[in-house]
Amino acid sequence: MKSEREKWNRLNKLRKLIAYHQRLYHDEDSPEISDASYDALYAELQALESELLGKESHVTQAVGAPSTKAFSKVRHKVRQWSFDNVFNWQELQAWEDKIRRLLNKSGEADYHSLSYVAEHKIDGLKLVVEYKDGILQRAATRGDGVVGEDVTHTARTIKDLPEKLNKDIDLIAVGEVWLKESEFVRINKDRRLKGEKLFANRRNAAAGSLRQLDAQITAARNLSLTIYDLDWIDLKDEKKIFTPNTQMEELKLLKKLGFPVSPDYKLCSSLQMVEEYYKFWLKKRNDLPYEVDGIVVKVNEIKWQKILGYTAKAPRYGTAYKFPSEESATVVEDIVLQVGRTGVVTPVAHLRPVRLSGSLVSRTTLHNEDNIRRLDVRVGDTVIIRKAGDVIPEVVAVLKELRPGKSKPFQFPEKVQGCGGDGRIERVPGEAAYRCVVKDSEQLRRQKWYHFVSKGALNIDGVGPKIIDLFLDYNLIDTYADLFTLTVGDIENLPGHKKKSAQNIIDAIAKARRVELYRLLVSLSIDNVGEETARLLAAKFKTLENLQKASEDDISAVHGIGEVVAKSLKTWFSNPNNDKVLKQLLGYLKIVNPSVLTEGKLSDKTFVLTGTLNNLTRDEVKKLIIGHGGRVSSSVSAKTDYVLVGDKPGSKLTQAESLGVQIITEDDFEKMIGFDKT
């Protein structure tokens, strides 16, 4: 439990840090953290201010940041706002409950028939455009909501922005400037060739392109625009045009006037329909031409929008319903050491629970001692964690501005519970890993069993850690071969099992008797032999006998396999106990399809994947690479041929750029192999 003083210290640090990141985002177009990480810090600040002050401060009331001195200042005729956020169905319901209470107080008798308009929340740069007699007069950034920057000269280069409307009226409209993925890749490729700093993301690139002194640079970057709001119409023009009474009518009017409007907005007669819209676009978000980080929900009736009004920071009549983030900020509450099946000791950060990609994350690996030192991560630190696609969450940065005053660097102990003997550990010479000195503990034994039956190894469906524990507790298995001698009678009387469930387990075990060579190698828990390495070994040596007879030099000569793997294999095979266990096991198995790599378009090419893929899953891409003769690696090196980059890539992209490794998109990969999407 934090003391009052510690809470005040954290509040003040958060205020300074959030003000700093607001300036980077709005004023310099060079954000250092993601929107999701900023949102997490902002939410913590709001909670602390509510607890300590009982109200919001000037920091949490602020919208955007002051405009920069590089462009002339524009005082907005209509104040610009930023929507508050909700992150789940319960928070969305709470928002609706609040607006219903406010409408009830106002005396509106028919507010029960509320409807909503749901739209995409485009992740771009807000643009405010003014027209007089239907002619574009000015375009400005949001700035701090009161004063923005005049960017008319560059905004005019956006092909989607009409110079003249279809009606000669005076109005102010608001939209979002964004950049297509293909343009983003092209621009960064050009900047890389010129030795210029790369844009971190599409929003960053769009903002940097719009805020150029030279409009020709902006024109060359093919910015796009979507208009979503009508801030003001001169009432003297009512005879020329119908004044909208609802948000739906407003969007239709904007389109009729010639503005680019997203075709995917929807009128929702209930909050449940909003939820359905949200879930639909959560799955389809990668099909859109622009990036979205959620949806925006607004009360449809404009008269009720006016009654609901605004807080000091945001409209009450609308909210942003954010998609699950793949990056967020949280606090390291502890660092513990976890012993793996091969005796490797891995540091794991226990985190203040945070929602990431739709699931609650409370721990993440810190990999090894070198990584901890590189990050300088400590207990009590506020960290940025990231998850892209199906990748395990990882700590990517430490916000040292929020570090507690008494924090200490993490040190590996001499002993760890879970190792054999007296629990001593040692760092392996030439490696970043610590390992148990003695590997005969019961914990290690069980972990090897869990791995043996897992999806990546023998893939025995329905047989997981709980069932393995049951078999071990009742002394039904000792060596791997014992698993294949079990009968229905052995299992049906165990706690929680009957004849049918016992038969299902026996059937699943029977299917595992036919096993590919690479899967067998993976299942044996040989140091440094994972799936990619096992596939390379199976492709080269074809049979287990050939691999056992091969020398260290023969094994290390295989492309993609070095001396460390070769030594691990020879050490494992030369162990008499391992030899005995393997011979017993082979009496129950039939090794099939030993050659798992083929000659093809990608022969001898090594790929690394990073980020979220749109058209295919990671497993599908891996199978295609292997099926065309290529290899998949988990890390980038000078020997990597291609890094396939999806949305929101991780540190592997930076590593590839620093090493000069060729970077390709999913579309590039599909063209390489002639993949037919149909």
CATH topology of the largest domain: D-amino Acid Aminotransferase, Chain A, domain 1
Rg computed from alpha carbons, rounded to a whole number of angstroms: 30 Å
Integer average pLDDT: 87
Strand content: 15-25%
| Form type | elongated
Largest sheet: 7 strands, antiparallel
Which range best describes the helical content: under 10%, 10-25%, 25-40%, 40-55%, 55-70% or over 70%?
Answer: 25-40%
Q: How widely separated are the two ends?
A: 57 Å
| CATH architecture assignment of the largest domain | 2-Layer Sandwich
What structural class results from the helix and strand content?
alpha+beta
Unreliable spans are: none
Q: Report the CATH superfamily of the largest domain.
A: DNA ligase/mRNA capping enzyme
Total DSSP helices: 25
Number of strands: 24
CATH class of the largest domain: Alpha Beta
Number of separate domains: 5
